C-alpha cells in the first residue's frame, strides 16, 4: 500500500521526468500480465538472485511477500492515482501560501482527501493477495505455504469438514465487514445531510 501511494504521487505530482513512460509501464504491467508469466518471471529472478544473495537461496515467506507486493502495488497505484487526479490542488496551494509546510499539507489535506481510495486499494490488494494461488505456487518453497495453497491441496483429496468450516468463517467475516462498512457509510451520509440541512437553515 505504501509503495502504491508513493508510485501514484510520482505519476501525478512530479510532472514529466526522464523514464516516466517506462516507470508507468512497469507499475501497470502486473495488471495485464498473466499470472503464470508473472510467477515464472519472479521464480527465475529469485533463482538468479539466490546465486548472489544467501537470503534468496531458499524460497519461503520472503519470496512470497516480495511477489505479492510486486503485483498488489499496481492495483493500489491505479486506485490512488485516479483519486489524486480529482483532488483540488488549489486547496493544497492555499495551505502552503498560508505557511503550512509540505508534510503538514499532506497529512491534513491530501491524505484525508485520498483516504477512501487508500482504503479501497488496501482492501483490493488484501483480497487479491489472499486469493492468489498461481504466483504463490511458483515462488514458495517447502518451508512456506499460503492459505489458498493449503485449501487447494486439501480439496484435491476431497472436501473435508475443515474446508467447510474455513469457508463458513470467511463468508461470515466478509459479511460482518460489509455490514459494518455499510453502517458507517450510512451514518456518515446521514450526518452530512443533517449538516447541510442545518447550514441551509
From TrEMBL:
GO terms for cellular component: plasma membrane. It holds the Pfam family BPD_transp_1. The chain crosses the membrane at residues 31-53, 65-85, 105-126, 133-153, 165-186. The keyword Cytoplasm does not apply. Residues 1-181 form the ABC transmembrane type-1 domain. InterPro entries: Bact_Polyamine_Transport, MetI-like, MetI-like_sf. One of its GO terms (biological process) is transmembrane transport. Signal peptide: none annotated. It is a multi-pass membrane protein. Keywords: Cell membrane, Membrane, Transmembrane, Transmembrane helix, Transport. It is found in: Cell membrane. CDD domains: TM_PBP2 (cd06261). Belongs to the binding-protein-dependent transport system permease family. CysTW subfamily. This is Putrescine transport system permease protein PotI. It comes from Vibrio maritimus.
